[in-house]
Amino acid sequence: MVCSVSICAGEIFELKAELNSDKKEKKKEAVKKVIASMTVGKDVSALFPDVVNCMQTDNLELKKLVYLYLMNYAKSQPDMAIMAVNTFVKDCEDANPLIRALAVRTMGCIRVDKITEYLCEPLRKCLKDEDPYVRKTAAVCVAKLHDINAQLVEDQGFLDTLKDLISDSNPMVVANAVAALSEIAESHPNSNLLDLNPQSINKLLTALNECTEWGQIFILDCLANYTPRDDRESQSICERVTPRLSHANSAVVLSAVKVLMKFMEMLPKDLDYYSTLLKKLAPPLVTLLSAEPELQYVALRNINLIVQKRPEILKHEMKVFFVKYNDPIYVKLEKLDIMIRLASQANIAQVLAELKEYATEVDVDFVRKAVRAIGRCAIKVEQSAERCVSTLLDLIQTKVNYVVQEAIVVIKDIFRKYPNKYESVIATLCENLDSLDEPEARAAMIWIVGEYAERIDNADELLESFLEGFHDESTQVQLQLLTAIVKLFLKKPTETQELVQQVLSLATQDSDNPDLRDRGYIYWRLLSTDPVAAKEVVLAEKPLISEETDLIEPTLLEELICHIGTLASVYHKPPSAFVEGSRGVMHKRLPARTGSNVKPEPLSLSPQLGGDIGGSPAMGAGFGAAPAVMPASLNAPVGGGLGDLFDLGGVGMPMGAYIPPKIVWLPAMKAKGLEISGTFARRAGVIQMELILTNKAMSVMTDFAIQFNRNSFGLAPAGPLQVLTPLGPNQTIEVSLPLSTVGPVMKMDPLNNLQVAVKNNIDVFYFSCQYPISMLFVEDGKMERQVFLATWKDIPNDNESQFQIKDCHLNSDAASSKLQGSNIFTIAKRTVEGQDMLYMSIKLSNGIWVLAELRVQAGNPNYTISLKCRAPEVSQCVFQCYEAVLKN
Amino acid sequence: MSASAVFVLDLKGKVLICRNYKGDVDMAEIDHFLPLLMTQEEEGLTCPIMSHGNVHFLWIKHTNLYLVATTNKNSNASLVYAFLYKVVEVFTEYFTELEEESIQDNFVVVYELLDELMDFGFPQTTDSKILQEYITQEGTKLEVAKTKVPTTVTNAVSWRSEGIKYKKNEVFIDVIESINLLVNANGSVMSSDIVGTVKLKTMLSGMPELRLGLNDRALFALTGRDKGKTVTMEDVKFHQCVRLSRFESDRTISFIPPDGESELMSYRINTHVKPLIWIESVIEKFSHSRVEIMVKAKGQFKKQSVANNVEVRVPVPSDADSPKFKTSTGHAKYVPEKNLAVWTIKSFPGGKEFLMRASFGLPSVENDEMEGKPPITVNFEIPYFTVSGIQVRYMKIIEKSGYQALPWVRYITQSGGRTAMLFRYSLLMYSKKRPIIYS
């Protein structure tokens, strides 16, 4: 029990006497007293033998009490627990099914190794009992026993019996058998216990209609682990699961949503059923918001995921996420988050009106988040930016301290997003300078003053006022102040020399913060050696901030969608992050979309590609024809020869990244005379698609544009295709197209497949090509040794794949430096019996790490390579890169 | 899968009773629960899931008790909360009131129930009517012939026992619609919906098959019928007993009802609702001096109908004093512990308009704590009327013995409890210098 409270010896003695009384009533009362003592936390384990003696009774209530006592104390008295075995065995054969079930239920709760094996025979009988109540209890007992002694359960063949129970005639037995098997399978991920196949799925779906609400949850959660063979099977399961969305129990609804969200991944988007299903999902999700607050909270956390995965489901339901005055704070904050995610041009007016209302509430955290939300709306919905700014100004007028500070922080972001647009508000902001006491707000204000110093007459005074207490400021503010004053100096050098001297000496001489000191020195040197360069560095144009900063990374999102309704979906963390011993468990993934009869899609007719590119409104933006006049430097043909040149260099020095030779991607025959060949390269951290366009037709080609279909790593053109217009007959041009990795993601097969559409004045052409995955290897892919070791251990062995690289005649150092050129970093080298083992790490642009062990034996041209990765599907591609890099 | 153990704690965090279902979480971990909760409460950021190390606490509060489930796995959180609420429901039916005392007085039954409700973290039988057939308060005498598992426990029909008998077979149907509404200070309706429930009181013998017919638009569209007013239900939720796949395929609501009282279904309707009672208010705050409140309530429903127990709750500052009221009907009073002025009107006929004025004094030294601006709420009941126009068209009752049974239907529209009609308002603030308007 929870706490031990001493119980006096006299009391124990008295109870002992009563327990051994001949009168049944007295006995029962005594056991009750014992249990009462146990309940309040007194230690009554000393009475063990006396209580166990009462076990053989025909009074059900007394028996239950004794069993209860046994469950609590058996573990502390293992030797004496054996005394109870006989009664259990006997009770399992009792004529009354309630007693048989009670015995088998309690038996499994006595976690004493010594007695488990005595329990096998009774359990075996109970699993075949004629009464379903006993069978359903026995099914759960198998899971209990497995938890204590897995080997024993396997040896005794209980797992097979349990599997048989899935076909039991009674729905409750089926449900418990499914629950027990799922539980066992979860702790033994590789046991392949739940080998779900269409037949067993069919049985489960039938039982789904008949069992209790809880049984339905067990079955739905189990179904969610199944991967249908094709879209037809997927659809038929979805059809049989959707009625569950009308169940009164919120947990049944969420588990059904999980199955549907997962399986609909496999459905072709142009299927009518797909859109029907999308429509069916919204109402039950909305209804979850009228459940009890705790269930609402779980629902909201899940809706947050669903909105990120499939925004179309709830895009018209903004109003239901409006916060109610009496919602608990945890519900309020979640609703607010979802409101921002759903904000769009269509509903922004309402959203803003609501947010402004929230900003006048009392709950500080909620108010802050509401103010911040207004800023996020401004950044997300460009058309609303002006209205958001004026709302924020209204709020600043309230002079409520934390509202003002929060508003200033978000206004800074708005300035970042829309430079030179809202500077008129700076005056108002400056009025509140004195009331700012939070570092984040102070830093934001200082940034604003520095950034717009040329428009603020007294910028120097303002910044100087901060300088007085420089050493009491937090690092964030100090750094910002340093930069702001340097900016000011570069903009108004004549009046501010003294100020900049002052801040530089404060930062470099009087501070012991290395970051601050370093930054100070850098500025100092820049300013003293080359003021022009300083201007270019400090006043450089800043990259725009993106609209949504807190989106969940796509692979994690997919995994979390597979865990809808569970703690993982509430924490927004994978189970491996908070469940001990789950490291070896496979990360769940959404199934890939597959056609019922897999055949390569004809490229030029691919409906998906056509749909995505063709009539979609996105096309306008993506295809925007190249501007007529281009800066010369961008138009210069980019030679693919640079990499080759480096390759000639001696072994041992780092070389440039491997660039595959150009091949023809689109023959002229298929594209009305336009031939495209190309390759991919990574130069200075930028992925580039290098194309050669040849006009083999008779007429002039103009208006080139390019677009990609969604692909595995979100590759997308980072700018328009820059083609010098026009391309005359028989002319050839080399173009280099920088790529980003922030485009929409969809798993492709093969993984590195890229479907491309190129447009010109004649038509739109489609082709597909494969890029070497090494393009995605980023420069900071060198893992710390310790991290490498831990990660290597952490990734389950199932995720390891081994490959042979034949006929490679480099030594290990040469190989290592060659690989480094492609951002494959050697972390450590070990030599064992003439064999060099190289440990390497690679980081992909989407954050996936690949760890490798390369074994090189002197004189043997065949290398062995082992790859370990949490996303093992990339291994094949990575291996291909190794081969390509090493052999070229 | 779900809970490793379930605890019932008092408000001080003391364990009143607990049940360890899986043994994979140290039972002493519960000692961390209250300190965690208190830290969160101090920060003003409570959360129904808390964790300590690798142990997670999922909890709900009921009267003066905390019900807490612990786990160290990736449990199904929605299942755990649904289960905890079910536990509350079962205990409440057993002990009428679920509170500290009822747990202490009935610990034997509580243990028995906990044993039957969940096994190894899997919820089992949670229907209290069925449980009462074999877990009785007095303790079962074990006479083999008598005690056996009610087959209901494991039957596909797990909510109704066989052999129920009534002299007069009747079923009472209550259709209750509640209104959720939010009106902004400028009088625009921000959001509105109707949550309806159909409650049954079944007094029928045997195992009757029931079919409920509503004027459901989707059903009419399906059968091609087109007469009279129909209602579009946005979402429908059913009791365990209703055959969901049947409803999914042809919108038929067919079921074998539980005996006695039960909630058969609930539905949600998104259509724009006209606020049945419209509130207009002028609230003026003269700082350091007084608050003046004027509220006008207008019945925007049919003249023949009457709203009963209308209650208009107007928030007032927490430091207000010396209330004065004037009403054109009904009665107003000050409820200082809730910072509310409550105006009650026992019966409010449709189409009528009433007025209430209140004034409060404010101390010259004012509370500088920020105060929120809770909306004005209106609660009421209008009998014999559903705002959506939903109707029970028929209730077919078929039992193999062939008895005749009578269905009785009652309609009511209400606001209050979980649903509310909320009106935001502008607070006109007057200080000595100039007025500032917050909306």
Strand content of chain B: 35-45%
The radius of gyration over CA of chain A amounts to 34 Å
Give me the secondary-structure category of chain A: alpha+beta
Strand content range of chain A: 5-15%
Q: Which oligomeric form is depicted?
A: heterodimer
Instruction: State the end-to-end distance of chain B.
Output: 48 Å
Termini Cα gap of chain A:
69 Å
Can you walk me through this structure?
The complex is a heterodimer of chains A (888) and B (439). By secondary structure, chain A is α+β, with helices and mostly antiparallel strands. Chain B has 439 residues and is an alpha+beta fold. Chain B contains seven helices and 26 strands. In chain B, the strands form five sheets. In chain B, strands 8, 9, 11, 13, 16, 18, 19, 21, 23 and 24 form a ten-stranded mixed sheet that branches. The longest helix of chain B has 19 residues, at 77-95. Chain B starts with a strand and ends with a strand. The relative contact order of chain B is 0.12. At the A-B interface, helix 2, helix 4, helix 6, helix 9 and helix 12 of A face strand 2, strand 4, helix 2, helix 4 and strand 7 of B.
